[in-house]
Automatic annotation (TrEMBL), chain A:
Upper classification of the organism: Bacteria, Pseudomonadati, Pseudomonadota, Alphaproteobacteria, Hyphomicrobiales
Kinase listed as a keyword: no
Domain Acyl-CoA oxidase/dehydrogenase middle: 131-226
Protein species of origin: Bradyrhizobium stylosanthis
InterPro entries, alphabetized: Acyl-CoA_DH_CS, Acyl-CoA_Oxase/DH_mid-dom, Acyl-CoA_Oxase/DH_mid-dom_sf, AcylCo_DH-like_C, AcylCoA_DH/ox_N, AcylCoA_DH/ox_N_sf, AcylCoA_DH/oxidase_NM_dom_sf, Mycobact_Acyl-CoA_DH
Superkingdom as given in the UniProt entry: Bacteria
One Gene Ontology cellular component annotation held by this UniProt entry: plasma membrane
Gene Ontology MF term list: acyl-CoA dehydrogenase activity; flavin adenine dinucleotide binding
Matching Pfam families: Acyl-CoA_dh_M, Acyl-CoA_dh_N
Cofactor(s), by name: FAD
Name of the protein: Acyl-CoA dehydrogenase
Domain Acyl-CoA dehydrogenase/oxidase N-terminal: 14-127
Automatic annotation (TrEMBL), chain B:
Keywords: FAD, Flavoprotein, Oxidoreductase
Domain of life (superkingdom): Bacteria
Protein name (database record): Acyl-CoA dehydrogenase
Molecular function via GO: acyl-CoA dehydrogenase activity; flavin adenine dinucleotide binding
The Acyl-CoA dehydrogenase/oxidase C-terminal domain, residue ranges: 200-319
Family to which this protein belongs: Belongs to the acyl-CoA dehydrogenase family.
Species this protein is from: Bradyrhizobium shewense
Cofactor: FAD
Length: 386, 354
């Protein structure tokens, strides 16, 4: 037996291609109607509530979930197609993306039935937005250093403390967060954290926007002051959040969003060099396309593993490691290759504007959702080194 | 391509384990391992895996043959197994029966051309031909005024200038000067030198991916044995992260190569989509050979730089394989041109089609 991991060549089934056509047609209509401009990823306001509802009406949110909760009981591979087409089109997915990808699946697994019946159908309709409350001012990659306290009180818990770098908290209706319910033990420093469902937009929660180096305000500081969470909003085992976090990671880390965030600059480069590129441009584009194709085949393969009921945490970490490093370098490689593009290229201004934004976006890609260092630690553990 | 459910691969792995153990081979200064290994592979029908029964082969599927090449890469096998398989496959395209013994293919680079003259003779020069020195016959793709032909040529008729590639395997220059082939037939419609190079490139990609799997294995094992600064070097985070990157390169190479093999095994013709798969595999596997091999050497330190250690059997050979059937630079330029000619808005549909 070798240490190497297998990524079997999973192919998307035929029904996925029909779905892909539907998604492309829908996005083309939205673009024509002016909902968003696919050439402008640098929107100031990335929230699009009406678009979110229309995506929900198509049945493309919570696609893999049971029908009784508003889902479609479709496959992970079908969801994959919807996700990648939205991402490549630069569609404004902010309002529904987190709920669809990971908050919904967490609720499905750990929430009581009446909460599932209440919330999941609203996610499927594109009505509500989720945030993830993990990082704190002194706890980032080291998740288990979280200090925000949940103190037991009559019928629930009182929350005090601060979450930070919380994407979309300013528009979110709910947050899934981890809070400290007990102190860690000598034997297990991961003990003592509990996962909670938090209803946002209530007294006791203050959301303060934080400006990002892109000029956008998408992440926030969220301050809890004696904020009450009822008992039935506990998700899973009290003090046992550490057992629940890992299975989420395979969903969070292997998707097409982990290598397509700056993809638009590659399309625009191909447009700029035209149909007869010089050797330097052709070689540069060829290598980037080969790398992109390889990552996508790996990512589709992981989607196939998820569909088969596996928990490919190490495989997903490899996809995110390679994918995010690639999408981080992409704007710089495109800038290199565009250096000798004619001043008269018709899309030169578009490309320059996109590069400006992609270069500013790049540093976050290897940090958000698990840093490169954390991922390599997980891979090393998979190799039996830790 | 799971290893366990493939009888061809199981047979090959048993032969490799018995007769091509890298440490045993590395200790053998007289190459006395070569003849018994080739004999065992031939008796099992493996070199002619891709030749149908009625043309003298064992008629394995393309998929099984590709999996066999991946296994050969895991053992860094240094006999003309891949070359004979490719030669048999090429001859079978024109329904030419395969003879017994070692073969290789001409040309082995997209830049070289063999021409077919009006009198039925073949001329031209092919550089970097793997294992030409060991071949009893050549499978040749030639260009004539009526298009592409495929020929079987007796090795005694050609001139060979012997050379070694960076992995110490034969990589020779073969010159054909108005020689008469044993057999010559027209290639099937649509079959050209590019088809042959893509097929050869995917074969090399699978071998590189296999070599990287082994480099990862032996590097992980070594890091768990070697002690420095009073602990196993596998416990240093810098070493762990290097090995994690090697695992990533190995996984990427394997994914690209097996995906391309799957694409060819299921293709009816070599269209743009198969071209994307095959060219990408060669580009990405060559890049992985460079990056992954460098990490394997870094983990091993000085011992990995010695002739007595087996690491170089994998690392140098996988670097050498980059050059055969078109380098990654060649395929990147060609793939880049294809993408540009299709236009910017056709790039994503091409990628998503796979």
């Amino acid at each position: 037996m070798t240490a190497a991991l297998r990524f079997d060549p999973i192919r998307l089934p035929e029904k996925c291609e029909q779905l892909r056509k539907e998604v492309r047609a829908f996005l083309a209509e939205e673009i024509a109607a002016g909902t968003f401009d696919p050439h402008k990823p640098n929107r100031e306001d990335t929230d699009a509530p009406e678009f979110s509802r229309r995506v929900g009406a198509k049945g493309w949110l919570g696609m893999t979930w049971p029908k009784k909760y508003g889902g479609q009981e479709r496959s992970f591979l079908e969801r994959y197609v919807v996700t990648e087409e939205m991402r490549v089109a630069n569609a404004p997915t902010r309002r529904f993306f987190v709920a669809d990808r990971q908050s919904g699946p967490v609720l499905l697994k750990y929430a009581p039935e009446h909460i599932k019946m209440d919330i999941l159908p609203r996610i499927c309709r594109g009505e509500i937005c989720f945030a993830i409350g993990m990082s704190e001012p002194n706890s980032g990659s080291d998740l288990f250093a979280a200090k925000t306290r949940a103190t037991k009180t009559d019928g629930g818990y009182l929350i005090n403390g601060t979450k930070i770098w919380t994407s979309s908290a300013h528009i979110a209706d709910y947050m899934i967060a981890i809070f400290r319910t007990s102190q860690p033990t000598k034997e297990n420093r991961r003990h003592g954290l509990t996962q909670f469902l938090v209803k946002m937009k209530q007294p006791g929660i203050k959301v303060n926007p934080i400006g990002q180096i892109t000029g956008q305000y998408e992440f926030n500081e969220v301050v809890f002051t004696d904020f009450f969470v009822p008992d039935d909003h506990v998700l899973g085992e009290v003090d046992g959040a550490w057992k629940q976090a890992t299975s989420e990671l395979a969903y969070e880390r292997s998707g097409p969003e982990r290598f397509l965030e700056t993809y638009y600059v590659l399309t625009e480069l191909v447009r700029a060099v035209g149909p007869n590129p010089d050797t330097r441009s052709a070689e540069g584009i060829g290598r980037l396309v080969a790398q992109l194709h390889t990552m996508r085949r790996m990512s589709v393969s992981v989607a196939g593993m998820l569909q088969a009921g596996k928990e490919p945490v190490v495989e997903a970490s490899i996809v995110k490691d390679i994918g995010t490093v690639w999408e981080q370098q992409l704007p710089h490689r495109v800038r290199d290759l565009a250096a000798f593009v004619e001043e008269t290229a018709t899309n030169r201004e578009t490309l320059e504007r996109q590069l400006d934004f992609a270069i500013k976006t790049a540093p976050k890609l290897t940090i958000q959702g698990g840093t490169t260092e954390v991922l390599r630690g997980i891979i090393a553990r998979g190799l039996g080194l830790r | 391509m799971a290893e366990s459910d493939n009888i061809v691969v199981e047979t090959a792995e048993k032969i490799f384990a018995d007769l091509a153990d890298p440490q045993t081979i590395n200790n053998d200064k007289k190459d006395s391992w070569q003849a018994p290994l080739w004999r065992a592979l031939s008796e099992a029908g493996l070199p002619l895996s891709w030749v149908p029964d009625d043309l003298g082969g064992s008629g394995a599927s393309l998929a099984d043959g590709f999996a066999l090449l991946n296994a050969a890469g895991r053992f860094a096998v240094a006999v003309p197994l891949a070359e004979t398989m490719l030669a048999g496959w090429l001859l079978a395209q024109a329904k030419i029966a395969s003879p017994e013994g070692e073969m290789t293919v001409l040309p082995a680079s997209p830049k070289d051309r063999i021409t077919l003259d009006a009198d039925g003779s073949l001329s031209g020069r092919a550089r970097g031909v793997p294992f030409a020195k060991a071949a009893k016959h050549f499978a040749v793709l030639a260009h004539g005024k009526d298009g592409v032909s495929i020929a079987l040529v007796d090795a005694g008729k050609v001139r060979i200038e012997s050379g070694l590639n960076v992995g110490y395997d034969h990589s020779d220059t073969v010159t054909l000067d108005k020689i008469q082939p044993v057999t010559l037939k027209a290639a099937p419609k649509g079959f050209d030198q590019t088809t042959m190079m893509l097929m050869g490139g995917v074969a090399r990609s699978l071998q590189i991916a296999g070599a990287l799997e082994s480099m990862l294995d032996i590097s992980v094992r070594y890091s768990n044995e070697r002690v420095a600064f009073e602990k196993k070097i596998s416990k240093f985070q810098a070493v762990q992260h290097n090995l994690a990157r090697l695992a990533g390169e190995s996984a990427a190479a394997l994914a690209a190569a097996t995906s391309a093999a799957d694409a060819i095994a299921n293709a009816t013709r070599f269209d743009d989509e198969v071209y994307l798969e095959a060219a990408s595999a060669k580009i990405r596997c060559a890049e992985a050979a460079e990056k992954g091999g460098a990490i394997a050497h870094q983990v091993h330190g000085a011992i990995g730089f010695t002739l007595e250690h087996i690491l170089h059997r994998y690392s140098l050979r996988s670097l050498a394989w980059r050059d055969d059937f078109g380098s990654e630079s060649h395929w990147a330029v060609e793939l880049g041109k294809l993408v540009a000619s299709r236009g910017a808005d056709e790039l994503w549909p091409l990628v998503a089609s796979r």
